[in-house]
Each structure stands twice: as structure tokens, then as C-alpha cells.
Amino acid sequence: MAEEYSLAGDARYRPALGDFAAYVRGLLGGARVVGLSPGGVPFSTFWLASGRYPIGRSSLRHYLTPELEDEGGHIGYDIRPSERLKGYGKLILRLTLAEARKRGLRRALLTCDADNFASAKVIEWNGGRLREQAVSKRSGKLISRYWIEL
Ligand SMILES: CC(C)(COP(=O)(O)OP(=O)(O)OC[C@H]1O[C@@H](n2cnc3c(N)ncnc32)[C@H](O)[C@@H]1OP(=O)(O)O)[C@@H](O)C(=O)NCCC(=O)NCCS
Q1: Would the CA dihedral through 55, 76, 47, 35 be positive or negative?
Q2: Which of 3, 21, 42, 84 has the smallest number of Cβ neighbours within 10 A?
Q3: CA distance 8 to 82
Q4: Cα–chain-centroid distance for residue 45?
Q5: Minimal-distance CA residue to ligand 1 atom 21
Q6: Would you say the CB of residue 48 lies under 6 angstroms from ligand 1?
Q7: Whole-angstrom Cα distance, residue 106 to residue 127?
């Protein structure tokens, strides 16, 4: 999976290409607040898989900071390039929202680049209501903020 992302020019799984065990330990530590970066929040990681074949991953942040309220929100997700356009994006967000509900969250904030049409569709399909658009302090790009009632 990490190789596939790299070949598609996406560096997000590059850390997994080196020491995979350390990569997984880092994700597990995220949920236990171990070794979080300054300003980081605890998060849970979920994998969408068919048997042992990983299809996608999502992160559920346990609470928001002002920075995450600005951009990032409660949930991030991605589907491996070869499995996109098959409905898995909608599915992984639906399943992650169910996990958020189990944790007691009553509504979830989702953000995405305004030109990320696939992600906007995934969010709206899952009940996301556009709250506002703003310019990202990180990228300078237009971003959309949505709330989903749980
Ligand atoms: C966003 C992402 C998770 C969508 O995954 P996916 O499995 O392709 O999504 P789905 O198959 O559920 O498609 C959802 C909708 O988006 C549409 N869509 C998918 N890719 C699209 C694209 N590149 N352009 C326009 N629409 C697109 C689909 O046709 C579908 O529309 P429909 O409801 O009218 O049928 C995936 O593109 C991805 O991993 N992107 C990189 C990471 C990312 O952007 N994550 C979100 C951060 S906010």
C-alpha cells in the first residue's frame, strides 16, 4: 500500500516504507497520547481492509484544538489509489463516524480543500453541511468546513 501511494506521488505513507513496526507503534501511541507532536491530540486509527488487503485508513481525533477547528477537523481519511471511485471513501467515513458516535461525539467537524471534489462528495453523502469556506493558514488554498450531526 505504501509503495502504491509513493508511486502515485503521495508521500503520506513514506514513513511506513522504512521501519514498518515503528510506523505502527507511532499510530498506536497516538491513541495513548504517547509521543504526540506539540499541539497534537490523541487519535485513533482505523483500517478498511478486505481480509489482509488494506484499502484505506482513517484517523479520528479525540478532540479539537483551535488549529484543528481551523483546518483538519475530527476525521481524516484516504483510500489507496487503485481502490478509489468504488464507494470506499463514503464507506470509510460512514464507519469512522460510527466510531466517533461510540466515543460520545455528538457532531463532527470535517474540512477539505474546496477543490477536493471527491472528499466534498464523501462528506456531503455522509450528511455534511457546509458551514463556511476560508483560506487555509497552512496552504493559502480555499478550504471548506462541514459539520456532521451524529
Ligand atoms: C477523497 C477520497 C478518500 C475519495 O475516495 P473514493 O473511494 O474515490 O470515494 P468514493 O468512491 O466513495 O466516491 C465518492 C464520490 O466522489 C466522486 N469522486 C471520486 N473521485 C473524484 C474525483 N477525482 N473528482 C470528482 N469526483 C470524484 C465519486 O464519483 C463519488 O461521487 P458520486 O457520489 O456522485 O458517485 C480519495 O480520493 C483519497 O484518498 N484522496 C486522497 C486523500 C484525501 O483527499 N482525503 C480527504 C482529505 S479531506
Answers
A1: positive
A2: 21
A3: 10
A4: 9
A5: 118
A6: no
A7: 13
